[in-house]
Specification:
This protein is α+β, with helices and mostly antiparallel strands and about 220 residues long. The protein folds into 2 domains: about 1-75, no CATH class; about 80-215, no CATH class. Helix content is about 30%, strand content about 20%.
């Protein structure tokens, strides 16, 4: 057995100090294109084929701003709140989404609209009738302005049956996946628990605070 002053004990102590330093060192995200260090709020690119988000610095992100044929697309930062958005309960029911929250985006290559809803296991894709979507689109021209692959309609109708006002936004696609990750992280039990719904409320409050006010009214 080594004494406290032996070389072995000294080396063990040095490694223990090093491990303590490493544990305390904050995790740093890096640009996946050039490996430069990123701040907590940074740009994203998306690979539409894989539906994969990639963290990027400003310099790398700008390279993909107008390259429609590139593998990656730059995710925009604009958030639009649509207080005049029109969707009836019958139209929502026709989308066959089992919960009162979902996001919708159009694929640039296919032209089809995909619908996803968040849950404890992540995002689940729901089959969507193109005819039903076109009815909603006709009532809400703001949807025609959504950029394929990188922007989505985010609908929050939780509590609408109890008179809570539904919220609709056109958001960067990374905000949708942020919401999915938040729900997956904080969900407990069958109904999610109070913590997850508190986090969801905070997410939408932040979204509204950062949003421009747009119009979902076809007569605006």
């Amino acid at each position: 057995m080594s004494s406290p002053s032996s070389p072995t004990a000294q080396k063990d102590g040095a490694f223990a100090a090093l491990r303590q330093f490493v544990r305390k060192r904050p995790a740093v995200e890096c640009c996946e294109m050039c490996s430069s260090e990123l701040p907590s709020e940074h740009q994203h690119l998306i690979d539409p084929a894989a539906r994969k988000l990639v963290c990027a610095c400003d310099a790398c992100a700008v390279l993909f701003s107008s390259q429609s044929s590139a593998k990656y697309k730059r995710v925009p930062r604009r958030i639009r709140f649509l207080p005049q958005f029109r969707m009836t309960d019958a139209q929502w029911d026709g989308l066959m989404i089992p919960i009162e929250m979902s996001f919708f985006f159009k694929g640039g290559a296919s032209g089809k609209v995909a619908a996803f809803y968040p849950g404890p296991a992540g995002a689940t894709e729901s089959l969507l009738s193109l005819e039903a979507w076109r009815d909603i689109e006709r009532e809400n021209p703001a949807l025609l302005e959504m950029e394929p692959d990188v922007e989505a309609l985010l609908a929050n109708r939780v509590g609408a049956a109890r008179g809570v006002t539904a919220q609709y936004y056109v958001v960067p696609i990374d905000e949708c996946y942020k919401l999915v990750g938040l729900i997956r992280l904080h969900w407990h039990g069958l109904s999610g628990g109070t913590e997850v719904w508190r986090e969801v409320a905070t997410f939408f409050s932040s979204l509204k605070a950062r949003a421009e006010t747009g119009s979902g009214d076809s007569h605006a």
